[in-house]
Amino acid sequence: MIYVKATKHLTGVTIQGDLDDFNDLVSAIYRMTGTSEEVGDLYEGVKNRLLGLCYDIRHAYMGDRDIVLKDNVLGSNIKEEFGIHECNQNIYYSVNILYPEAIFLALAVPDMFVYSKGYYGKRDQYNQEYKMINSYSNYFKDKALLSLLSSSIYQSLEEVIGSDEFNKLYSLINKENPDYVDYVTLYIDQCNLDLIKTQIVQRKDKLIDITRNFIKKNKEYKNIEKRIKAYAHKHQISIDQIEDVNIEYPEVIEW
To answer: How many angstroms separate the CA atoms of 157 and 153, rounded?
Structure first.
């Protein structure tokens, strides 16, 4: 099972899971984001961010991120019965992602489920046996796994900001019914950097503001969206092909 908890300085969240957990999540992300590069994909920005998380997760279970050892709960009698006397700890892989990034995924990924459902139930027309390559049963599994990830991020956020504030944000979601079609994700980078620059004692309030602005687009987002979409239209490119040279992450992040 995937676990999500806030980092010490509220810079981000730590996502933990065993090898099977991370393998299942990576497979779910690949299937849910599709295998072909579509022109004008409505959720290209969301998918790119999700694939960015997938990149970190893959490197986590390759040993390029943190590993956490946790005591298992097997009693001595069970260990004796199955002959596993030396098995005292379980290995969990761990990866950190910035909090605004995590919150955005929690909000936006469920919004693309219906759209992504079109990637399922298809057959491989080039296979002689015409086999199903992505069945609808995978859709239900992948949706459940990504919904669990989203809910775990929400739970970590509630632990930081408190239930009263979280309930206000949830009410705002129901009121605004936000969608993330053609979302300009450069704004997420701006939020990531804003949080990093915020004093630790002020990060709780900053996370509330960031979440609120992801739910209900503020003036800052609308200005960025207007500028980026105008540039994309002028140069006939996707909004997700545009980079902001002013966005530069610190080499070392104090999590």
So the answer is: 6
pTM: 0.86
How much is the pLDDT for 37? 55
Phi, psi of 4 (to 5 degrees): -130, 130
Mean pLDDT of 147-164: 97
Q: Is 164 helix (H, G, I), strand (E, B) or coil?
A: helix
Amino acid letter, residue 69: L
**What are the beta bridge partners of residue 15?**
4, 95
Which residue(s) pair with 13 in the sheet? 6, 97
- The phi-psi region of residue 236 (left if phi > 0; otherwise alpha if psi is between -120 and 50; otherwise beta) is left
Q: How far apart are CA 111 and CA 246, in angstroms?
A: 29
Distances from the Cα of 57 to the Cα of 23, 53, 65, 144, angstroms: 9, 6, 8, 18
Report, in angstroms and rounded to the nearest whole number, the Rg of the chain calculated over CA atoms.
Answer: 20
Question: What pairs with residue 17 in β-bridges?
Answer: 93
